[in-house]
Automatic annotation (TrEMBL):
This is SMI1/KNR4 family protein. It comes from the Bacteria. Residues 63-195 form the Knr4/Smi1-like domain. Pfam families: SMI1_KNR4.
Length: 213
């Protein structure tokens, strides 16, 4: 397993390569406009604006302070998992321009999913009550309580969510990537990052293959 700083450097290289390989129409706002509209005063928004001008070599931010991590834990009423705090110790937020999930939020901005997505959470809760199913995963039944780690999606309904009640060994909360009605589950935040890195590399290879024809 790569150290977190090495993993984030690999993520940075892969995200920039994916961005450069994307079709021209994807470069209009790089999927960053919803984040910029919602959090215009964030330091990550300043980085996003530089992305739109092409003036970026590092898609991350300075590390989060211990005080800001403790403040987020107190605000949310949970202990953040070790690998997520390792990520924050390297970069307090991260951009993946042109990707479906284009922003990983600074720790100051993470919040319960239902705060800004109450309709999605309510729709799922109502549907599960109607179906009276006991087999649906916790995340869908209590979607509003999940902690949203990613910013507003550029299109569709794509999010990175932390399950505050489902723990894996090593005090790692389950991390889920959510696409409308589909989910992919990860045993830790670092496992999510490794999956995201693989996805970026595969997408870039596909895009580059298309341009070579």
């Amino acid at each position: 397993m790569m150290a977190m700083d090495e993993l984030m450097q690999a993520m940075n290289t892969a995200a920039i390569a994916h961005w450069r390989a994307s079709p021209a129409e994807a470069h209009v706002d790089l999927g960053l406009s919803p984040f910029l509209a919602t959090h215009p005063d964030s330091a990550l928004a300043d980085l996003a604006r530089r992305c739109l001008s092409g003036d970026v070599v590092w898609l991350g931010m300075p590390p989060a302070s211990k005080a800001s991590i403790l403040a987020a834990e107190a605000r949310l009423g949970i202990s953040l998992p070790p690998s997520y705090k390792q990520f924050l110790s390297v970069s307090n937020g991260f951009l993946m321009p042109g990707n479906y999930i284009s922003t990983l939020l600074p720790v100051e901005l993470i919040q319960p999913f239902g705060n800004e997505n109450a309709t999605i959470a309510s729709d799922w809760r109502s549907m599960l009550e109607e179906e009276a199913s006991e087999d649906e995963p916790w995340l869908m039944a209590r979607l509003g309580d999940a902690i949203q780690l990613s910013g507003p999606p550029g299109k569709g309904e794509d999010f990175v969510l932390l399950d505050p009640t489902f723990m894996h060994p090593g005090e790692e909360n389950e991390i889920a990537t959510y696409w409308t009605q589909l989910q992919e589950h990860h045993s830790s935040f670092v496992a999510y990052l490794e999956s995201a890195l693989a996805g970026l590399l595969n997408l870039t290879a596909f895009l580059q293959k298309g341009t070579d024809r």
